[in-house]
Amino acid sequence: MARSNIRYGLTKGHPTTAIPKTVRPSQRKGVQSARTKFVRSIVREVAGFSPYERRVMELLRNSKDKKARKLTKKRLGTLLRSKRKLEELGTIIQESRRAGH
Questions:
Q1: Secondary structure (DSSP) of 24-83
Q2: Which domains does the chain have, with CATH numbers?
Q3: How many CB atoms lie under 10 A from the CB of residue 44?
Q4: What pLDDT, in 10s, does the model give residues 21-76?
Q5: Rounded to whole angstroms, how far apart are CA atoms 71 and 40?
Q6: Which residues form a coiled coil (predicted)?
């Protein structure tokens, strides 16, 4: 709220203008740039999938979700990374089904 010259209440005090806060590099961490996204898509297109990713995709196609989750967690280290990878590979499988049929 903007301040007014009233001596009491929520807007008490001298009228001031708010200075917009600058974004620190630490607050920007994890935000993907357009260049990075493009480069990763090119690398994925050229190099394809790693052997464990192919195995996980096969497990997902055969509805062995728990086995796939355990495998990705062992390879990637944490459950959150595992979930993200499964989500990514699941969307790739769905896109290939749409393109194939």
A1: PHHHHTTPPPHHHHHHHHHHHHHH---HHHHHHHHHHHTT-HHHHHHHHHHHHSSHHHHH
A2: 50-100 (1.10.10.1760)
A3: 11
A4: 999 999 999 899 999 999 999 999 999 999 999 999 999 999 999 999 999 999 99
A5: 23
A6: none
